[in-house]
Amino acid sequence: MCWEIFLDSVADYTSRVSPQVIAQLPVPMRLMLHLTGERRLTGLLALKEFQRENHDSLPTRRRRLNHYADYPFLRRSGIPDSVLLLGPELPLRTRVDEVGWKGGTLRVAGHAYIRNLPPSRRRRDLKVAMLRGKGRRPLVVPARTVFRPEATAATGQTLHDYDWSGFEFTLDTDRLKTGGRWVDGVWKLTIGVLGSGGTLRRSRIKVGGSSLHLPALHVDEGIRIVPVVSDDHLDLRVETMAAWLTGHRQLDGAVELSGELRSEAPAEGATGTLRLLAGPSGRAGKADTGTVGFSAGAEGRTRFTALLDQDTWAADRDAEPRSVQLVLPGGRALDLAVDSRLPAVSVQYPWADAALCLSTGADGQLTVCRRATQAVADRVEWTGPDLLTIEGTYPVPGTPPMELVLRNTKQAEEYAFPVEADGQRFRAEFPPAPRPVSHGSLPLRQGQWQVLLRPVGAAGTEGFPLVRVAPQLHGAFPAEATVRGKRCTVSRRLHDQLLIETHSDQLPSEQGAYRQREWRTRRYPAARREPLREAVLYDAFSGRQFSDSPRAIHRELLRRDSTLEHLVVVRDHQVELPEGVTPVRLAGPEWYDALARCRYIVTNTHQPSWLERRPGQVIVQTWHGTPLKRIGHDLGGTQPADRQYLARLAAETPQWSFLLSPNRASTPILQQALDYRGEILESGCPRNDLLFAPPAERQQRAAEVRERLGLPEGKKVVLYAPTWRDDRSYGAGRCAFDFHIDAAKAAAELGDDHVLLVRKHPHVVDTLADHGDGFVMDVSSYPELSELFLVTDVLVSDYSSLIVDFAHTGRPMVFLTYDLAHYRDTLRGFSFDFEKYAPGPLVATSADLVAAIRDLDRVSAEYAEAYEEFRGKFCDLDDGGAAGRVVDRMLAP
Predict the structure, then answer these.
(1) For position 319, what pLDDT does the model report?
(2) 271 closest CA partner among 233, 300, 299, 312
(3) Bond prior to 478 in cis (omega within 30° of 0)
(4) Which is nearest to 513 in space by CA: 118, 114, 196, 57?
(5) How far apart are the C-alpha atoms of 548 and 340, rounded to whole Å?
(6) Which of 321, 346, 865, 889 is the most exposed place for a label (fewest CB within 10 A)?
(7) From CA 73, how far away is CA 82, in angstroms rounded?
(8) What per-residue confidence (pLDDT) applies to 573?
(9) What are phi and psi of 552, to 5 degrees?
(10) By C-alpha distance, which of 570, 569, 380 is closest to 486?
(11) Residues 497, 380: contact at Cβ < 8 Å?
């Protein structure tokens, strides 16, 4: 009935719209209206599903001189050509990624393609660069086609391959002369592409990032070429410098600027002013300040001297840099350039309680601003294997000990490194990689990282200077190195902010939705036709760790001297692996091969919905603990409920050979929540086997853990291990961390005889602030949770399933449930009465938590009965032999 009403309403509306208006609509909209008008519901739903998977990409076919949309579900369906005719759906997409000077030659590289008409062969699309100046004859520059798979990956679509859309061209700047001489003006860079069927498109060249700002090139006496980014497009400006800076110095309470004018000197005694422009061409504001005096110079030029003093300068503190103009006595304003033959300007003069910063702007003009003293790097280079050296000026005498911080631009993840500073300069030499002890030798997570200076022990970014790049270094970037097995690039953003980018562990030719579809639909089926390998593929938390029950099963196979090959899924190079295992990059080509060919797959997490278990293949789903909080189909009516997730789950579960149940209470919950109708092995939880090892072995492992972590002898260990929150997410599998313990107060009350270990959930990406007192330690990357349990005296958690695992130790637990009502009633809820069965006190504040830890004897006595009832309900199957039972079933004929 609802669909009937929808179809009737749309048909009625369409009948009253002019056909000329409908003809101007994009093809998907025209097609939707046509299908609705013909009441073709099946085709309409197929169109919506196609759009969901492919966004704005369209399959195309060519007939004569035109191109038409070619939806596979509509072939031979009688749709009129007028509905499917393509026009605006075939725009030219351009991007320039590399621009640089070499002598008097400009080199430009990027990509350009006609959307939805990919080049089918390397030289199918012809490309020509053009420069257009007002009143000038266009300049044509041949462009060479190059392989640039990044173009395909950046589209995010799955239909088209734009790998051969790359281009390169070089321009001899002498070609910008008019009649053999330099004439001021702007040249706009465009590129034309001749694509399939003679389709011609032309567009200005779009810039890919602020790091493409280049210094001006001095081409003749007083003449320079300035690369300018205008409306995100690249232009070249030929200009005659009317006024330029030649020097600067600080005087008492003022800064003196000196330079030259091309014009003759004004009348004796005449003065001018400096004009500070906010925003492009001063659109965000103008302010005149200072006094400018003039005197005669050589060769008909005029010298000028300008004073900026603290009393008359009108710029606000912390303002963005403002470009400077020289205003002559008659009111004429001249842009004040920095002579490109001289070293670029980058200086900070003490100025009241801040600093006056002079710098060469992106367009070669002088910029000034008054703001907090900045850290300006004048040396940034790779100085050894994995070592980056950053040196520069930070003229703030009497500053406290500082550290250099790398902070992820999209999440609260950061790492700090030592800095040498003397009140004028700073220096740091470090591997740009995580530093906590439990990270071992892992590289940084993929992403972009700001660089800032901060007092040791401080937190956050507010009020601390970002490290900026001195203008003379701008041409040295990007600078790339390999750090702990991953590509790492030093570059700039927003013109002069230092940026470190760690790249994907996949090659450019392996990235993007298009490549994933190719491997999923071609490589994976082809690999399934190959013989099975006698190998086990382990996947723990989608490649975020090699831990949990999959690792326990791996240990059991090693104990049995199995001859099987062992492969481990690794995400973004973020897992340290033991000897004897082979890493398999998540979503890499080898991952598709391993899923298709490994005889055994052991996983504690979801697998792709397209995975199809083949004859002779065994897929073991260990899950990841007792489902205390609601999961899967039990989430109906809650915030995380997701139809698409449930559809993928319905496709995935039939592929499991068997599912482990950690305890008998979990068996019916897992069956219902996962809608699973296959075999369930009530084996217990393999990750807990270590907790049942002989006492001598457990004591030895505990001593090894304490030594590895550097735990102080004699101090009790508090382990804080909360779960993640669905409503505190940066994106899929990337959650924020809310540390609800007042570390300073806890350290004051507990620090003498306790240490606090923090174990974040694998979904959490934020880092824990370094409190610098040795009381708090982040152990999130420690590979084995059961080993941490061996040294833990009291567990602090919330709604995490690991409370069941820890219950095997018999040691006390406290629950920091600051959001209990929200979590229970809105966010997820529980699969049992958590408040009734919790084996320890539920506390809402950090103060109450500390009080409970200080009085554990009372807490243990008060909750002894509840603790035993909890163990009886959830700890009935574990006995140290769970991994053995799983391997027996896995290897059974």
Answers:
(1) 64
(2) 312
(3) yes
(4) 57
(5) 60
(6) 865
(7) 18
(8) 93
(9) -65, -35
(10) 570
(11) no
Q: Which amino acid is at 829?
A: G
Q: Which two tokens stand for residue 854?
A: 């200080």
Token pair listed for 26: 């994009």
Cα separation of 614 and 609, whole Å?
14
| Contacts with 286 (C-beta within 8 Å, 6 or more apart), sequence order | 275, 276, 277, 278
Q: Residue 597 is which amino acid?
A: R
Compute the distance between CA of residue 315 and CA of residue 499 in angstroms, rounded to an integer: 28
Return the C-alpha torsion angle 592, 594, 595, 597, nearest 10.
120
Backbone angles phi, psi at 811, to 5 degrees: -85, 160
Q: What is the pLDDT of residue 354?
A: 81
Instruction: Output the CA–CA distances (angstroms, integers) from residue 328 to 64, 243, 258, in the order listed.
Output: 64, 11, 15
- Nearest Cα to 626, choosing from 879, 867, 804? 804
SS3 224: strand
Angle between helices 2-15 and 27-37 (to 10 degrees): 110
Q: How many CB atoms lie within 10 A of CB 696?
A: 8
Q: Which helix (H) or strand (E) holds 803?
A: helix 802-807
Tokens of 308: 């900026």
In angstroms, the CA 585 to CA 589 distance is 8
Nearest to 428 by CA among 446, 460, 452, 444: 452
- Measured CA to CA, the distance from residue 795 to residue 853 in angstroms comes to 10
For 231, counting Cβ atoms within 10 Å of its Cβ (0-12 exposed, 13-18 middle, 19+ buried), the class is exposed
Q: What φ, ψ does residue 723 adopt, rounded to 5°?
A: -85, 180
Please state, in angstroms and rounded to a whole number, the distance separating the CA atoms of residues 563 and 347. Answer: 65
- The pLDDT, as a whole number, for residue 4 is 79
Start-end of H helices in 38-162: 41-54, 81-84, 150-155
CA separation for the pair 740, 366 (Å, rounded): 48
Residues in the chain, pLDDT under 50: 210-211, 314, 437, 439
The 3-state DSSP class for residue 681 equals strand
Distance, CA of 391 to CA of 381 (rounded, Å): 9
* Tokens (6 digits) for 124: 């199918």
Pairwise CA distance, residues 611 & 696, whole Å: 43
Question: Are 113 and 145 in contact, with CB atoms under 8 Å apart?
Answer: no
pLDDT recorded at residue 698: 96
Q: Which of 442, 543, 425, 537 has the alpha carbon at shortest distance from 483? A: 442
Question: Which pair of structure tokens corresponds to residue 228?
Answer: 């300018």
For residue 89, CA distances in Å to 48, 63, 81, 735 come to: 17, 16, 15, 37
Nearest to 477 by CA among 459, 446, 494, 498: 498
Tens digits of per-residue pLDDT, 511-550? 999 999 999 999 999 999 999 999 999 999 999 999 999 9
